[in-house]
Amino acid sequence: MERKRVVTSLLICEGKILLLKRSQRVATMKGWWRGVSGYLEEDELPYDRALKEIREEVNLGPDEVELVRGGEIIESPDVAGKDVIWVVHPFLFRVKSPGKIRLDWEHDECVWVLPADLESYRTVPRLADALKKLL
User: Fold this and answer.
1) How far apart are CA 98 and CA 81, in angstroms?
2) Which residue in 61, 70, 76, 80 has the fewest CB atoms around it within 10 Å?
3) Domain housing 48
């Protein structure tokens, strides 16, 4: 079974979590909601990749976010039934400048939601588990 390493960063501001809706131009999970995520390169540190993805996906630099905490690794089988286990490194970042957020092509829209309202959205697998471990 193949293991793919990724980071997922949940961004928080005034008690709400930023969810990003995946666009129709991405390869998988079109229309699903998630945090800021990306694949880890072979020798890359998860924290470094998290900052890169935040810059790429929502246009916030390292001075515009503050690490609250990193969580325990979460493993999840692929929802499409592929022979893959996703190894997720979760992070929680506080956003200092939410007005500066600009989405890249991977996302159609974003919403700020209370953690209790996460279940109202079709999220990528285990996102709620990651959030619980981070809060």
Assistant:
1) 36
2) 80
3) 2-134
Q: How many domains, the chain?
A: 1
How far apart, in whole angstroms, are the C-alpha atoms of residue 85 and residue 69? 24
What span, in angstroms and rounded, lies between the C-alpha atoms of 82 and 1?
9
Are 128 and 114 spatial neighbours (Cβ–Cβ below 8 Å)? no
Alpha helices (H) in 45-107, listed in sequence order: 46-58
Confidence of residue 1 (pLDDT cuts 50, 70, 90): confident
User: Phi/psi class of residue 15: alpha, beta or left (left: φ > 0; alpha: ψ in -120 to 50)?
Assistant: left
pLDDT digits over 29-42, tens only? 889 999 999 999 98
CA distance 83 to 113: 33
CATH number of the domain that 55 lies in?
A: 3.90.79.10
Q: What is the pLDDT of residue 26?
A: 81
